[in-house]
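Anyone up for a design puzzle?
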């Protein structure tokens, strides 16, 4: 729970302007956005591979894939927080058709909610996996929790990448400088 609370604090503090970040230009925000999409795609691939490998009984491959996915999410945070706190974020352009904009906002909302809700479950599954041997894990709820964690995390990441594509490569965007409050 402590790791989750720290993550929530860092994200909330960034959006509230509590932490100083270097000034990042709009082109820097673009570059970080592209890098974040790559990291999230790689994390999704790791999660799907980890899910596949555990179903095949390849515990070591599963452990490495899931650990890699978690490491990639830490890389995501290292890029995302300065991008938002020191540069800004993008919004879908007004030129997007209403139905597309609605779909974009629904996907974005689900992505954000799932990201926030999945993290404690992901951390719990990870800590169980790291603190128990494979035979000990059979006596825990790791498999049940892991399925929930992986499914919600994969859906969140896929929706995040889909909104990135819509925003950056399909309908265009507008730039909002740092410290624009979401709430």
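Challenge accepted. My sequence:
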């Amino acid at each position: 729970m402590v790791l989750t609370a720290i993550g929530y604090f860092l994200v909330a503090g960034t959006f509230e302007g509590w932490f100083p970040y270097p000034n990042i230009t709009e082109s820097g925000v673009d570059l970080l956005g592209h890098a974040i999409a790559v990291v999230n795609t790689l994390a999704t691939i790791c999660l799907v591979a980890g899910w596949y490998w555990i179903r095949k009984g390849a515990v070591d491959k599963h452990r490495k894939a899931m650990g890699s996915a978690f490491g990639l999410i830490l890389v995501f945070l290292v890029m995302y927080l300065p991008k938002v706190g020191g540069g800004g974020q993008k919004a879908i352009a007004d030129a997007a058709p209403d139905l597309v904009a609605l779909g974009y906002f629904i996907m974005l909302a689900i992505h954000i909610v799932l990201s926030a809700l999945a993290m404690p479950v992901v951390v719990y599954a990870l800590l169980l996996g790291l603190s128990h041997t494979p035979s000990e894990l059979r006596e825990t709820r790791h498999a049940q929790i892991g399925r929930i964690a992986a499914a919600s995390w994969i859906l969140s990441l896929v929706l995040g990448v889909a909104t990135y594509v819509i925003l950056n490569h399909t309908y265009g965007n507008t730039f909002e400088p740092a410290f624009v409050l979401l709430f």
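A detail worth pointing out: The longest helix spans residues 98-131.
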